[in-house]
Each structure stands twice: as C-alpha cells, then as structure tokens.
C-alpha cells in the first residue's frame, strides 16, 4: 500500500468525524430538521470497506449514511447542504440526512426503513449478474436489521441465486437502545449466515486496515463467483442513536472504554509508529479537513432553498 | 383482430415484450417450471429459460425488492405477486420504496418496474384470498395503478407498462382470465392514465373498472330493454385517475353510479364522487350512487360470498335510483 493511500484513509476518517461534529452543531442550532444519526466512532468501518471496492461495485446502506457518502467521494459541502435541505444537496434537499445517494458514484442510498434495502441490494446484484457485469454490491446495515424478515429473505435469495453481494453488518452493539443480546438470538451476527450455508466472518471495526484487508479478500472471492458473504464488523457509536437520545440504555463508562479504542487514534498511532507519517504530516491533514469542513458549512448555509416547483418534480419519470 | 381471452392477451403482451427487449424478465412464485398459477406464463420457461423466467422463494418483500434493485440497474423486471392479498407482505417495498425512491433521491433513481398481480373475489377462497384492495395502492403518489377490464386493454396497457420508466402495479382480475374479446393482431400500446367510454349512452353515467365493467355492461343491456341508455366510463387506471371522460359524460347525463368490487368506505366511488361534486356540482341532478362490496371480510360460503359482492341487479337498482 503506498503512503498516499495510508494518508487518504486518515484524511477520510477525520473528514467524517469533523463533518459529523459540524452536523451536530448545526442540529443544535436548529438548522437541521428531522432525525440526525451520527457516524462518530464507526469511521473505520465504511472507510476501510469502501477503500477496497472497485468503481463498478455498488454501495447501499442504511440511514446512518454520512460516512459512506464521504467515502464514496461526495463532497462534504453536498452532504451538509442536503442535511440543511438545500437545493445544492446531493438529493436536492428532498431526502435529508437519511437519504443521501449519488448514482454517478455508484452509491445507491441511504435507506431509512430498517432492513428494507437488503432485498433491493439483492436486486442490484441480480441486475449485474444478469448483465454479466464484473461488479459486487456492498450492502451495509446495522445489527438491528438482522432481526427483521427482510434480512432473512434477502440472504436466502442471494444464496439460492449465488448473487454477488457482500452483506456487511455494522454491529455497533445497539439497535436504537436495545442491546444486541436483548434482541438477537445469537450474539455474533455472523452466525446468522450459517442457516443459509453462507461464508461469514467477523472483523474488528475499530481498525481501518483490518476492515480494508478483510474486504479486499472477500470482494475478490465474490467477484470470482463464490456467491454472497456475510461480514460482521464490530464497532461502536459514541453518540446516541440519533440526536436527542437520552442514552438510558448504557453507562458512560462503557462509552469511555470504547473511546479509548478510537479508530482515528489507533490509526494515527499506527502511522506514526510505522513511520508512514509524522505527527506534523497528520496535523497538516487535520488542519486541511478543518478548513474544508468550515467551507462546506458556509456553502451549505449560503446555498438556496429548493424552489417551490421542486415540490412536484421527480414524482414520476413520465 | 382475433378473439382471445384476457389471459392470452396478457400472456401475449409479456411474450412479445420479452422477445423484443432482452432487458425484460419475469420473476415470481411459480412463474417458471409451473407456468404461472393462472397459467399466464405457460411455456415461457421452456422458451426463454431460467435466467429470464425466475422462480423465486415465497418471499413477497424480496420479490418486489429484488425487482426494484434490478430496475435500478436498467433492467425491466416484471415481478409477479400470485395474488394482491400477498402484496401486503410486500407493502413496504411497493409503497415505501418503489413509490418513493425517485422523488426522495432528487430524481436520481429510475424504476422501470412492473408488478403484476391478481385481485378480486368470487371463487370461495375465503377472506384472506379474495380481496379487492386496489384502491389502497392508488393512495400513494409515485406509484401508478393500472387495472384493465378487457383483453384489448390488458394487452395494450401491459405493453405500455413494461415500456414505461415508472413503477406500475398492474392488477388483473381473477375471474376475467376466461373472458374473450377482440384484440388487434399488430403491436400496439394503450397510454396509461386514460379513461375510456366502453359503451355510449345518454341517461346515466356508470363509472367503473376491471371486473365490474363486465357486470356494468350486463346491467346496461338489461336497462336498454327498458329504454334506459347508460354510458359506461372505464377508468382503466386508478392512478393517474383520468376524470376528463367522466366529467364530460356526467355533464351530459347529470347522473352517475360508481361501481367497484372493493369495499365502499374510502373507495373508488368516494374519490370519483367527490371529484364530480367538486368539479361539476352545477350539473348534479341526483345524489351520486355507489355500488360496492358489503363491509365484511368475504365469507367462504358461496351464497354469503355472492351476497357480499356487487351484482348486476345492484347496478340496475342504483341506476334506477338516480333516474
């Protein structure tokens, strides 16, 4: 792996973190409406995963989608503009935080009904298989989604039809406020693949390089025709499920323990320890990101509202 | 012109579109090896092969969900839900996904998707298998709901639906499959969202669609013997709802009966009547009548079931009521 890629992974994780912190602030200022689900703590998951994809690989995720949006290359300003409901947002202000997508970047959303995008992901993979394309669909979802029927229907279908899908469960320990062991019959989500005779794995989601390596290996196998795989990535969100979460379901101690294992901190120490980058190099990236996010916030705030006629646009193609 | 059944018309539309366009494929329960539970896709599996005629698990949400995903990749899937009663298991994907993805992502997504399904009662299948809940699906902007009542319309509308870039719920009727009608031999499409006068008349306007068109035509024959000439407007699609021919007819007859197989409450009749009152109030000579299913789950017993479903006599009586 060349130095530039190492630094780029660091840059992306810091960018996600600062975009999310800016979003939290904008939310508290009343500039973001609706729900806001932050990705802070989980940055290594989508950063590692998406760094392993080929451009033809489709990505689809749930509503905690800001990190993925950044990783697929949507400019921070278009993400923040969407959060503010502006016409310049990636979904023209009509989707909001939970519905970011960018078809040009092969990013198919941002889906807010738990588990409902899994059958759609199976269909994306079916479309590629039907057309003989060399593409894998990467479908991300939370641990909570593995308890709903859509998950089981979609995993079963993907195995029966040998679809090129990488199912990625981001196990952040809680489905909203309900701990995994209180909602799921098995603690290790990857075990759910066994009922579908599907290859599976469990990866440390606080280690961006571990995620990247695991994804590279599995994507290669799926591309070669091995069929679907369920990858559980163990991670943790530092913030509440969404803004305004009273967090009665967990202790501050637990959050602190995970924060000591911070994905950005671990990676920074690794880069310095391996002499891949100096503290100065990384500080320079931090400053660059701070500036980029400040500009993105300004762009989003100064962007125009959608025009009234946008209300009736895009209901139908014909 | 050939005189063929509603089933043959639908089957031909599918066959011809699949022959013309390799991006069209079928997926659903028993559509392949079995040949379709209503035999619409009989012979398709042998001709087109398993890649284009895909038997699925019994998993409606995933049938529709996978069809949505495949449509997003540029294919033209025709998903079959064995009956509309099973569409409830796919409700999220029909009304929360298919109907919204384009809008919600600012026009980035295009869904050239057809969901074929079968509605209607009258075959003693019990309460869960006999419903006509078409109107529920018509409630959602973003989805189009088409429900033909004749073989000619079935073929032309299905071909239009398959060629359309929008998600369309195509509702066939379980007891129309044997109905015969004249169908043009050539390749034709009927634009979606256009109501049609199926029988001209001067005295009363009947607004209806699907199976109830058949009953309304019978009622019209009976009434004609008594010198009453009804004009029948077939909606053919519930969304978009084309009110122009309805209003035109109503402004001539000043009287209307709306006939649907589903329940009366919150039904097609409610919507059409409201629009007539809103847009043609000055032309109203009598309160608009609605003929619809009795407000019960449909019973198994044949006599009770027929009591619950609208009958020709109910239509005749309603027409006389408005005169």
Provide key terms for this protein.
A: about 325 residues; alpha/beta; Rossmann fold; 6-stranded parallel sheet; B: about 325 residues; 5-stranded mixed sheet; about 20% strand
**CATH top-level class of chain A:** Alpha Beta
Would you tell me which CATH topology of the largest domain in chain B applies? Rossmann fold
CATH class descriptor name of the largest domain in chain B:
Alpha Beta
**Percent in strands of chain B:** 15-25%
* Percent range of helical residues of chain A: 40-55%
The structural class of chain A is alpha/beta
Explain the layout of strands and helices.
The complex is a heterodimer of chains A (318) and B (323).
Chain A: H1 3-28, H2 43-51, E1 58-61, H3 66-71, H4 76-83, E2 107-110, H5 117-130, E3 137-142, H6 149-160, E4 165-171, E5 174-175, E6 178-179, H7 180-183, E7 200-204, H8 208-226, E8 229-234, H9 252-259, H10 263-273, H11 279-302
Parallel strand pairs in A: 1-2, 1-3, 3-4, 4-8, 7-8
Antiparallel strand pairs in A: 5-6
Chain B: E1 2-5, H1 6-20, E2 24-28, H2 44-48, E3 53-55, H3 60-72, E4 76-81, H4 91-98, H5 101-104, E5 114-119, H6 134-137, E6 144-146, H7 151-163, E7 168-173, E8 180-183, E9 196-199, E10 204-208, H8 211-225, E11 230-234, E12 237-239, H9 244-253, E13 256-263, H10 268-280, E14 289-293, H11 302-308, H12 312-322
Parallel strand pairs in B: 2-3, 2-4, 4-5, 5-7, 6-7, 10-11, 10-13, 13-14
Antiparallel strand pairs in B: 1-8, 6-12, 9-11
Helix pairs in contact in B: 1-7, 3-4, 8-12
């Amino acid at each position: 792996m060349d130095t530039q890629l190492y630094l780029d992974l660091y840059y992306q994780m810091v960018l996600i973190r600062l975009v999310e912190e800016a979003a939290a602030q904008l939310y508290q200022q009343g500039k973001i409406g609706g729900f806001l689900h932050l990705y802070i703590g989980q940055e290594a998951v989508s950063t590692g995963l998406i760094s392993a994809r080929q451009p033809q690989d489709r990505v689809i995720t749930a509503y905690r989608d800001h990190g993925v949006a950044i990783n697929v290359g949507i400019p921070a300003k278009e993400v923040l503009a969407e959060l503010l409901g502006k016409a310049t947002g990636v979904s023209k202000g009509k989707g909001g935080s939970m519905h970011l997508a960018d078809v040009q970047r092969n990013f198919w959303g941002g889906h807010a009904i738990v588990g409902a995008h899994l059958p759609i992901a199976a269909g994306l993979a079916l479309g590629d298989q039907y057309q003989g394309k060399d593409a894998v669909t990467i479908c991300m979802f939370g641990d909570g989604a593995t308890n709903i029927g859509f998950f089981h229907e979609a995993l079963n279908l993907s195995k029966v039809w040998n679809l090129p899908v990488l199912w990625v469960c981001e196990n952040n320990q809680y489905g909203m406020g309900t701990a995994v062991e209180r909602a799921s019959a098995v603690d290790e989500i990857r075990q759910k693949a066994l009922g579908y005779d599907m290859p599976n794995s469990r990866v440390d989601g606080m280690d961006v390089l571990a995620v990247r390596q695991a994804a590279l290996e599995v994507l290669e196998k799926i591309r070669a025709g091995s069929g679907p795989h369920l990858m559980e990535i163990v991670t943790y969100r530092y913030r509440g499920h969404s803004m305004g979460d009273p967090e009665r379901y967990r202790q501050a101690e637990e959050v602190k323990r995970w924060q000591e294992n911070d994905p950005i901190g671990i990676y920074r120490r690794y880069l310095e320890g391996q002499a891949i980058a100096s503290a100065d190099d990384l500080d320079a990236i931090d400053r660059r990101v701070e500036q980029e996010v400040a500009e993105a916030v300004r762009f989003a705030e100064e962007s125009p509202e959608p025009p009234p006629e946008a209300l009736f646009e895009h209901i139908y193609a014909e | 012109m050939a005189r063929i059944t509603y089933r043959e018309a639908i089957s031909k539309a599918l066959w011809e579109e699949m022959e013309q366009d390799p991006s069209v494929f079928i997926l659903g329960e028993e559509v392949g090896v079995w040949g379709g539970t209503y035999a619409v896709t009989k012979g398709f599996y042998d001709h087109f092969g398993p890649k284009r005629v895909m038997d699925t698990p019994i998993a409606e949400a995933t049938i529709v969900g996978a069809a949505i995903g495949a449509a997003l990749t540029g294919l033209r899937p025709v998903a079959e839900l064995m009956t509309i009663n099973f569409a409830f298991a796919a409700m999220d994907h029909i009304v929360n996904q298919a109907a919204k993805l384009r809008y919600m992502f600012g026009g980035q997504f295009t869904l050239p998707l057809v969901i074929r399904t079968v509605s209607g009662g009258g075959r003693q299948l019990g309460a869960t298998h006999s419903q006509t809940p078409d109107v529920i699906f018509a409630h959602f902007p973003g989805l189009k709901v088409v429900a033909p009542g004749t073989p000619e319309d079935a073929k032309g509308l299905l071909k239009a639906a398959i060629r359309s870039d929008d998600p369309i719920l195509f509702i066939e009727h379980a007891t129309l499959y044997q109905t015969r009608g004249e169908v043009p031999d050539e390749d034709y499409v009927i634009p979606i969202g256009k109501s049609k006068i199926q029988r001209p008349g001067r005295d009363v306007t009947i607004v209806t669609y699907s199976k109830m068109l058949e009953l309304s035509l019978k009622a019209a024959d009976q009434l004609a013997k008594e010198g009453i000439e009804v004009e029948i407007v077939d909606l053919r699609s519930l969304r978009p709802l084309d009110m122009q021919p309805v209003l035109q007819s109503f402004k001539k007859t000043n009287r209307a009966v709306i006939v649907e197989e589903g329940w009366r409450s919150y039904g097609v009749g409610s919507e059409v009547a409201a629009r007539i009152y809103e847009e043609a109030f000055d032309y109203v000579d009598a309160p608009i009548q609605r003929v619809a299913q009795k407000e019960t789950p449909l019973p198994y017993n044949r006599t009770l079931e027929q009591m619950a479903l609208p009958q020709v006599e109910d239509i005749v009586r309603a027409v006389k009521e408005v005169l």
